[in-house]
Amino acid sequence: MDIQFVSAATDITEKSALAIIVFEGAVLTGAAADADSQTAGVVGRALAQGRFTGAKGQILDLAAPAGHSAGRLLLVGAGKREAFDAVGAEHAAASAYGAVKLSGLTTLRIAFADDGAAQPERAALGVRLASYRFDRYRTKEPADKKPSIVKAEIVCADVEAAKAAFAAQSALADAIAFARDLVSEPPNVLYPAEFARRVKGLESLGLEVEILGEAEMEKLGMGSLLGVGRGSAKDSQLAIMRWNGAADPTAQPVAFVGKGVCFDTGGISIKPADGMEDMKWDMGGAAAVAGLMHVLAGRKANVNAVGILGLVENMPDGDAQRPGDVVTSMSGQTIEIINTDAEGRLVLADALWYCQDRFKPKFMVDLATLTGAIIISLGNDYAGVFSNNDELADNLLAASKAEAEPLWRMPLPAAYDKQIDSIIADMKNTGGRPGGSITAALFLQRFVNGLPWAHMDIASTAWKKPSSVPTIPEGATGYGVRLLNRMVADKYEG
Ligand code: BES
Ligand code: MN
Ligand code: ZN
Prior knowledge:
By secondary structure, the protein is an alpha/beta fold. It is built from 14 helices and 19 strands. It has helices at 31-34, 42-48, 86-100, 120-130, 159-184, 192-200, 214-220, 223-229, 284-298, 344-359, 373-378, 390-403, 436-445, 481-492, and strands at 2-6, 16-22, 59-63, 72-77, 107-112, 151-155, 208-212, 237-244, 254-264, 304-314, 326-328, 334-336, 364-368, 383-387, 407-409, 427-428, 453-457, 463-464, 475-476. An eight-stranded mixed sheet has the order 7-8-10-9-13-17-14-15, with helices on both faces. A hairpin with an 8-residue loop joins strand 3 and strand 4 (72-77). The protein is elongated and about 80 Å long. The two termini are 32 Å apart. Manganese (II) ion is lined by residues 264, 266, 341, 343.
C-alpha cells in the first residue's frame, strides 16, 4: 500500500474514493462539508434522510454528485469527538478501507471533518494494518475478489510533519506484517529451520542473529526443549536475536522470549483431529518476539534488546517423548512429563534459563500460545499476563491500553505451586485442570532464577476467526508486537 500525506487542496481523481471521517452529532451542523467544499449540500441531504449520525463504525456510501471529481463519497462515523483518540483514527481509517477495498477504485483519500487528523500517521497505520493480506497460496482468485485500492492519501495540515511521524508507524506496520506472515504460513513450509532462516534474514536490518541447532543445545544441556522435538523429523532450533541500539553498547539489555512450536500435534498425548490445523499458529509467541526485534531495528530504537525463540515441532513418533519420561533441563531441574501436549512450557523452560544465564537482562517477558485454559478464562479478546514484578506488569498493562492490544493481569498464587510437584522428579509438566493457565505460569517461574519476569499467554489473541477489529483482518493478528514496542519506547529507551 502506497501511503501519501496530502493537503486538502490536492486534486482528486475519479478513480478515488473520498472518505470523510465525521464525529457523532457534529455532522448535522455541516462540519463534514467543511472537509471538502464540493460535497456541501449532498452530504447534508443524505444525512437528513437517514439514520447516519456519525456513531462509531457507521458508514454511509454515496455516489459522488455530478460535478464532483471523486468517484465515490464515503462518510465514516468516528463516534463522540471527546472520546476520539489515535486508536479511533486508526479504526476509522481502517473501516473506510474495508468499505471500498473491493470497489474497483484505486485510491482512498481520507479526510477528517475537523482536527481529528491531529495524528494522521495513526490513520495511515490503520490503513496499512487493515490492508494486510496473506495471498501467497492463492492461484485462482477471481480479479473482482482482489482488493483494488493500492494507494491511500491522508489529508492533513502539515504534510512534512506527518511524513516524519509516519516513519516509526511504518516500521511498526512492516514488523506486524512480518509476524503475521510467519503465523499464517502453513506448517509444512514454516518448520523450525525455515523459521530460523527467515529470522536470520533480518540481519539486513542491523540485527545480530545466531542460530543454535540440536548438537549445540545438547551441549548446553537443554533436555527439556530437545525432548519436545524428539518425535519430529525436523531439527529443533534456538534463535538468538540481538538489537544493540543503546548509546552504551554494554548497557544491560531487555529480553523477550517466544514459544515457537511450529506445529503442535500434542505428541504421544495426541490432540483430537477437529481443529488441529489451528496448531500451525502455536509459534505466535516467537513470531511476536521476531516482529518486536524487527520494529526495534526498523526504527533504530535506543535500547539494547535480546529476543530468544525456541523453535520446535511436537510430533508423535516411535522415538517421541513419552508420558512418564523424566527430562533434565538446562537449569539442572528435572521434569516428569505427564502430558506431551504441555510442550510449550518445556520449550520456554530452557529458553528462559538460557536467556537469564547468558544475558543477565533487566527483565524477561515471554510470549506463548501456552494454554487453552486462557481462552476459557478471558475469551478471545484479552491475553493474560502473569508476573513476579508489579512495575513490569504495570508497564505492560499501560502499553496494552495505548496500543489497543487488550491484556489482563492474572494471579501467581504460591499455594498453587505444589500442583506441579512430582513424586519422582523436581516437578511435573502439568498441574491438572484447575487453574491450568496459572500452573503453566508457575512452571515457567521456576526457570527465571528470580529475575523480574512476565509471561503473556496469547493463546486467546494470536489468531482471530472472525475479527471484529477493523485493523485486524481475519487470521494472524501479530498480537504483542505493538504492545511490546510501545513499552520499550515509553519505558526503556534512552
Ligand atoms: N498450544 C497449546 C495451547 C493452545 C490451545 C493454544 C488452544 C491455542 C489454542 C498447548 O501446547 C497445549 O496443548 N496446552 C494444553 C495443556 C494441557 C495438556 C495441560 C491445553 O491447553 O490443553
Ligand atoms: Mn500442546
Ligand atoms: Zn502448544
